[in-house]
Design a protein that fits this description.
This protein is α/β, with parallel strands linked by helices. The chain is built from 9 helices and 13 strands. It has 2 domains: 162 residues, P-loop containing nucleotide triphosphate hydrolases (Rossmann fold, 3-Layer(aba) Sandwich); 68 residues, no CATH class.
């Protein structure tokens, strides 16, 4: 069953955001995402969820222009993203991929500075605004005191925050995050999600691939639920996140209650019988 719901009022106009229409994506000729049409409305905080192998990261890469669709189009403000110049696109959309590779010997500050590259041209080189954006990104991610040490000397969680800082320094309207809570302890996971919520409230468009359904339900204004490379459901968490959907998509029986503090949907799994019991 596919459930679709209107995007929450006030989340922004879909026509000015990133959109997919009839998109099919493949690896080595094998389709992973099939005939997907969906919008990432400007000003929304969208979580893409689904089982392993459902095409979440693949779809995010298509929105980031990393993968070109076999069929269909990805558009930004109505323009095909593959018709835009590289820096023109990068000034509007930033991607934090899974497991980014840290260049050897680079300091945290130098890594974060790379986020400013799309804003530089032959006529516009480094300015005080760049310094401000770098300082702001370091402060947001709690890395100001680590700015001048090698990124390789950081813990895995700190290194992930350094990459997030680089993404923030890019200062784009759209931020795409592929499993951004990887390597972060529980406190820093929620710190990051609170930062995403803050950026969203300030008008940024945030889209994140997440595995934790409760985190997705608590923070997202819109969920996109993938199963077998297709959209199974989309809409506000309170409207589409039900025990039936969780059972259909994840094979998990659960209750959904209102979070006692936030009022958002909160999933409580039932005890699951073991296959060998």
């Amino acid at each position: 069953m596919t459930t679709k719901s209107a995007v929450r009022e006030g989340a922004g106009s879909a026509t000015t955001g990133l959109s997919a229409r009839g998109v099919t994506l493949s690896y080595n000729g094998a389709p992973v995402v099939r005939d997907v049409s969906v919008d990432l409305p400007t000003g929304g905080l969208t979580a893409i969820i689904g089982p392993n192998g459902s095409g979440k990261s693949t779809l995010l890469k298509a929105f980031a222009r990393v993968l070109k669709p076999d069929t269909g189009t990805i558009t930004l403000g109505g323009a095909d993203v593959h018709a835009l110049r590289g820096k023109q696109f990068a000034r509007q959309v930033a991607l934090l991929p899974q497991n980014p590779q840290t260049p050897p010997g680079i300091t945290v500050r130098a890594l974060v500075q790379r986020g400013r590259h799309p804003h530089h041209t032959l006529l516009r080189q480094w300015t005080p605004d760049d310094d401000h954006r770098i300082a702001e990104a370091l402060a947001h991610t709690g890395l100001t005191d680590h700015a001048d040490i090698p990124a390789a000397a950081l813990s895995g969680g700190q290194r992930q925050r350094a990459w997030i800082a680089m993404t923030l320094a890019q200062d784009t309207q759209h931020i795409l995050l592929d499993e951004p809570t990887t390597y972060l302890d529980i406190a820093h996971q929620y710190d990051l999600l609170e930062l995403c919520a803050q950026l969203h409230r300030q008008g940024r468009t945030i889209t994140a691939v997440l595995h934790d359904l409760n985190q997705a339900a608590h923070y997202a204004t819109q969920l996109i639920v993938l199963k077998d490379g297709r959209i199974h459901a989309e809409g506000p968490p309170a409207e589409i996140l039900t025990p039936g959907l969780v059972s259909e998509v994840f094979g998990l029986t659960c209750d959904i209650i209102a979070h006692p503090h936030l009022g958002t949907p909160h999933l409580i799994p039932h005890p699951q019988p073991r296959a060998d019991s």
